[in-house]
Design a protein that fits this description.
The structure is a single chain. Helix 8 runs antiparallel to helix 9. This protein has 3 domains: 226 residues, no CATH class; 81 residues, Helix Hairpins; 137 residues, Histidine kinase-like ATPase, C-terminal domain (Heat Shock Protein 90, 2-Layer Sandwich), CATH 3.30.565. The strands form 3 sheets. Strands 1, 2, 3, 4, 5, 6 and 7 form a 7-stranded antiparallel sheet that branches. By secondary structure, the protein is an alpha+beta fold. The protein is rod-shaped and about 155 Å long.
């Protein structure tokens, strides 16, 4: 069952369309998620960098830790670390933090590097904040607090922070401030990633729900569309199966009114059926005519032989020989037509058409030949047979003279055979090239053949890439023109 399902064009088209859309949706979804994550993360980095740089500027101005405005924000974790990695200041409600490189969240937390003796902490606090005079002494001669230099670069890291018992993910920005007398300090400020996590999660959930539904819609639509598009093909198949079963070549497949590839397929199928019907009909007619033509000389020959056997003195040997020759000629014509119908290739031998025309006209009374040297390629025997048939036909209908001319005309070699007879009526100029066709004045079997000579001549001309036509000769008779491609 599975194998049969995959053997259907409709099922394969549906599967292919669904797979293509699935790949496209996955690629688009991944791109959207990455873009969304990048944009929201960039927004968090911008907020964190702005907060860290604001604290760094205040710190570089010599402002004491308890006066830094950035440390008063409840929803943003901020830490200041000295060059030894010890926390010297932090947000008031910050309980735990990761991603800043500090072991503790706030100055003086137990177990961290910031926890030393009280004297050291006091010294460090004094060093970081400057002397009492530097932080607001009233003496006019006191020196101002030393200013620090804020680094232009900003580094980023991802971590977590716990504020008032709530732990969340943050994107931290790190900005360095360097003092000549107190060393280097690093300000860390974080921006929450909750919006990024929420947006990405919502988008992912929407895709997980929406993509399968969309794929189901695509598969269903493709299945229905291909079913509608291929229904005419099924109609063509059923009709062809019926034609094969009935052997009725007169039937035709239905042509849909869609003007698309399926309609063109139906038209081509009908043209093929018409050509096949014509070929079969021509073959049947050929067999019937051949049987009729063969029956006459065979019956005549048998009668003469039976009379001769019973009465030897009455045997007509000349008539028996004539009937035998006719029978032999007809059999040769039928054999040649069978080879032509089978697609026998004419070959590519090169020969002079003028010399061939002179050769076949030699010894014929009343035949005048004017032939140039024109090389052609093909079967010399078959082209010679064409010339013989044309000369026989012309001599049979001529009153006194037949003229043969061979000339080059552009890329063509032209053979013109004309007689001074009555000519061929314009209405019959194509019909005479059909097999077993003889005009009324040529019905006498004593004067003509079986009506195959001109049919053979045209078939040979066409298979050599040329043409054979008939018109009116200057003397009033028939003018046959054979055109063959000149040999290059």
């Amino acid at each position: 069952m599975t194998r049969r399902w995959f053997g259907s064009v409709r099922s394969r088209a549906t599967l292919a369309a669904t797979l293509v859309v699935a790949v496209a949706l996955l690629a688009a979804g991944a791109a959207v998620l990455l873009s969304l994550r990048s944009d929201l993360t960039g927004q968090a980095e911008s907020e964190a960098a702005s907060a860290a740089r604001a604290v760094a500027v205040e710190l570089s101005d010599g402002r004491p830790y308890d006066k830094l405005t950035g440390l008063d924000e409840d929803d943003r974790p901020v830490q200041i670390l000295d060059e030894r990695g010890r926390v010297v200041a932090a947000s008031e409600d910050l309980e735990r933090v990761t991603g800043t490189g500090a072991d503790t969240a706030r100055p003086g937390d137990p177990g961290g590097r910031a926890g030393g003796d009280a004297d050291d902490d006091a010294d460090d606090s004094d060093d970081a904040n400057g002397s009492d005079d530097a932080n607001g002494s009233d003496g006019p001669d006191d020196d101002p607090a030393p200013r620090g230099e804020v680094d232009s670069d900003t580094d980023f890291s991802t971590g977590t922070a716990t504020i008032d018992g709530t732990t969340a993910d943050y994107r931290f920005a790190a900005v360095e401030v360097e003092f000549e007398d107190r060393g280097k300090f690093t300000v860390y400020a974080g921006a929450p990633l909750a919006a990024e996590r929420s947006a990405v999660g919502t988008a992912t959930t929407a895709m997980l729900i929406g993509f399968p539904l969309l794929l189901a819609v695509v598969a269903g639509a493709t299945w229905l569309v291909t079913r509608r598009a291929l229904s005419p093909v099924e109609g063509i198949r059923r009709e062809m199966a019926a034609i094969t079963a009935s052997e009725d070549l007169a039937r035709r497949v239905p042509v849909p009114a869609t003007h698309d590839e399926v309609a063109r397929l139906a038209l081509t199928t009908n043209e093929t059926l018409a050509a096949l019907e014509s070929s079969v009909e021509r073959q049947r007619r050929f067999v019937a005519d051949a049987s009729h033509e063969l029956r006459s000389p065979i019956a005549s020959l048998r009668t003469q032989l039976e009379v001769g056997a019973a009465h030897p003195e009455l045997l007509d040997l000349d008539g028996a020989v004539t009937d035998t020759v006719r029978l032999q000629t007809l059999a040769a014509d039928l054999l040649l037509l069978a080879r032509l119908d089978a697609g026998e290739r004419p070959g590519d031998a090169r020969f002079d058409l003028g010399a061939l025309a002179r050769e076949h006209a030699e010894g014929r009374a009343g035949v005048t030949v004017t032939a140039d040297e024109v090389p052609v390629a093909g079967s010399r025997a078959q082209v010679g047979r064409v010339l013989t048939n044309l000369l026989d036909n012309a001599r049979r209908h001529a009153r006194s003279a037949v003229t043969v001319g061979v000339r080059a005309e552009g890329e063509w070699a032209v053979v013109a055979v004309a007689d001074d007879g009555d000519g061929v009526p314009e209405a019959d100029r194509e019909r005479i090239f059909e097999r077993f066709v003889r005009l009324d004045e040529a019905r006498s079997r004593d004067d003509g053949g079986a009506g195959l000579g001109l049919a053979i001549a045209r078939d040979v001309a066409v298979r050599h890439g040329g043409t054979l036509t008939v018109g009116r000769a200057p003397a009033g008779g028939a003018l046959f023109e054979l055109r063959l491609p000149r040999a290059q």
